[in-house]
Amino acid sequence: MSEKTYNVLFLCTHNSARSILAEGLLNQMGAGRFKAYSAGSFPSGRVNPYALRTLDRLGCDTGSLRSKSWDEFAAVEVPPMDFIFTVCDSAAGEVCPVWPGHPMTAHWGFADPSATEGDDEAKLAAFAHTAQLIATRLRLFTSLPIEKLDHQALLTELRRLGGQ
């Protein structure tokens, strides 16, 4: 088995909910094989507190999570990304920066749990549901035999996971 650690960037417009959930979950699930990051095209500057509460409940480390611009990851001095996934439809439709290293990209859309109206319990339930959907997709992703698939086969699998 390869000892390579794959860098994965999750993008969403505000980098406050879905991309944060994906970053926290993959860093927990990736077992050192994957290092996850997240960013936004127009970051809100704050992480949604329901995202943090959800990740805390799932035992994920939230200490380093912050809302940040995708420009941080287009710089030459950052670790090159192997995979970039958009997790919201608006980010998928935006013109992205040119990513160093030419990572594989796919769109994995999820409904925005922060758009849920209602009381605290309803909002937490929406975030928990979204986290469950993301975790399911991440389990499938992390089980792929990445080292054994050629570029086109891997890209096909990544897009299939996103329902494209």
Automatic annotation (TrEMBL):
Oxidoreductase is among the record's keywords: yes
Secretion signal span: none
SUPFAM superfamilies tied to this protein: Phosphotyrosine protein phosphatases I
Protein EC: 1.20.4.4
Any Pfam family the entry gives: LMWPc
InterPro entries: Ptyr_pPase (IPR023485), Ptyr_pPase_sf (IPR036196)
Transmembrane segments: none
Keywords, alphabetical: Arsenical resistance, Oxidoreductase
Positions of the Phosphotyrosine protein phosphatase I domain: 6-144
Keyword Oxidoreductase: yes
GO MF annotation: an example: arsenate reductase (thioredoxin) activity
Family annotation (PANTHER family): ARSENATE REDUCTASE
Protein name: Arsenate reductase ArsC
Organism expressing this protein natively: Chitinimonas lacunae
Lineage: Bacteria, Pseudomonadati, Pseudomonadota, Betaproteobacteria, Neisseriales
